[in-house]
Design a protein that fits this description.
single chain; 8% helix; mainly beta; globular
Length: 72
């Protein structure tokens, strides 16, 4: 699944993503810390996995060139 960064607090590492269907879902500092990403900016496209209820981000990454080359 993909979405765009809606908010990001670089001090706490937490934020939220807007999904392509318009829903806003949060991510915790722990999820960001596990992503290997170092900074996010509003509007940046991300790939993500949601929890079973679809209410929170469980994993964030940026897809590189080619499906088998994830970054983060």
């Amino acid at each position: 699944m993909q979405g765009s960064v809606h908010t990001f607090d670089e001090h706490s590492g937490a934020g939220s993503v807007l999904l392509d269907d318009g829903r806003e879902v949060p991510f915790t500092a722990e999820v960001f810390g596990a992503s290997a990403l170092r900074h996010l900016r509003a509007g940046q496209r991300l790939s993500l996995d949601l929890d079973a209820g679809g209410r929170a981000v469980e994993r964030l990454w940026i897809v590189g060139i080619g499906d088998d080359q994830p970054i983060g």
